[in-house]
Structure formats: structure tokens, C-alpha cells
Amino acid sequence: MGKIIAFINQKGGVGKTTTTTSVAAALANMGHRTLVIDLDGQCNLTTSFGVEDMTVNSYNTMKGEKPFKAVEIYPKLHVLPSSLDLSAFELEMATEPGKEYLLKELLTPVLARYDYILWDCSPNLGLISVNALSAADFYIIPLLPHHLSIQGLTKLMEVTDKVKRRINSKLELGGIVITQYNNHKVLHKDIAEVIKSHFGEKLFSTFIRENISLAEATSSGTDVFRYAPKSNGAEDYLSLAQEITNI
């Protein structure tokens, strides 16, 4: 049965989609059957993998309008794309009974097909993110090495704690990953120390270094392992994926 991991942060621009995309590709390259689901109405993960056919997507499958059917990127990696219609999801499903469990219900028939199922969550803490946390075993927080990023953690931890108490008792913090890290910047080192002092071993030992190949891969509609397999970005995300398999 697949291990379900939500990549979540309510702040945009922290490398959440890049991290989800790259970890999914790394897991697949390691031989794990991997499904990644785009839960962001901006569809960034969908376009990052070059997916153009969004006929079946996370919006209409959660609403029960379409049966689950993921797009094969390569044999071990499948993607369920997003839809611009996700922006209306929260309003449309406001009175739906059990609305927090729609994703969990969607996954039940396909769990046995995959070793890992990853969510790329929307950069807000609304109904879609609650659905993701309700179905997840773990959540991972991508974080920039900036003071404002640390301040935003408080609200996120409040939400995840409530979901754990009220909806999903098995939910755990899988870890925090620092992205866009530059070892030559004193601020980045200081922030890493602050996070380490608060979260201890929950801070992944792999830091994702600043690397232009990650942005170039995304704009090319592919993952960093296919775009620049010898880059720092590929090296870092392979290391992070190996850490994740040990959670």
C-alpha cells in the first residue's frame, strides 16, 4: 500500500512544486511506483511535467465526475493533473457531507498500485489542503532560508495539529527541507541553525542548493533528472528522496 506524502506551505515561491516534481521523479528513478497529484489550481506541477491532456484531473475526480485515470510520464511515474476549476472547489463543496475525505475516498481503489503518492498542495490552507492532510501519512514543508518563512510556519503547524486531532490521527511531520540554499550566505546558515534548534531531526540533512537547472527543467516541461542529470539540483533531490524513503 502506498505511502502518502503532502508537500505543503501556504507561502508561495518556496520551491514546493519544484520539490514535489523532483522528489517524484527521483523516487521513480529509484524504482518506486510513484503517483503525484496536482492540487494547485495554478497547474504548475502539471505543466512542469509537460502534461497537456487534463481531461481527467484532480478537480473532476474529487467531485466524482470522472473515474481516476493518471497520465503516465514514464513507466514508474504517473501524474493526475490539476485544473483551473479547482479555484471554485471550496465554494462548490461547502455543503458536501464528508467534504474533508474526498481525496481519501478517491485514493482507496488505487493505493495498492503505488509505493508513493505525493500531493502538491495549493499555497493556502483551505479545504483542498485539509483534504490532502486528511489522507496523508506525512507532510513535508519546503522552506526558504528567510526569516519571513519561519514566521509563516506557526499558522501551518496550527492547521496540521488540528487535522491530526480531529480528522487524521496518524498524520506526522515527515520533515522540513530548506530550498534555494546558498552556503556562502550568513543569513542562510543562521536560519538553518534556527530551524535545526526548533525541529531537530525533522530538518532534512539535505539542503537544496540554488541551481538554475531546476528552473530551466520546469520551463522545459520535464524533471531535472532528464534535463540536467549531473547538476547540483539533481544531486540534491536524489539525496532528499533517499532520506524520504527512510521516514
UniProtKB/TrEMBL annotation:
Domain AAA: 3-172
InterPro entries: AAA_dom, DNA_Partitioning_ATPase, P-loop_NTPase
Cross-referenced SUPFAM superfamilies: P-loop containing nucleoside triphosphate hydrolases
Highest taxon in the source lineage: Bacteria
Pfam families assigned: AAA_31
Gene3D superfamilies listed in its UniProt record: P-loop containing nucleotide triphosphate hydrolases
Name listed for the protein in its UniProt record: Chromosome partitioning protein
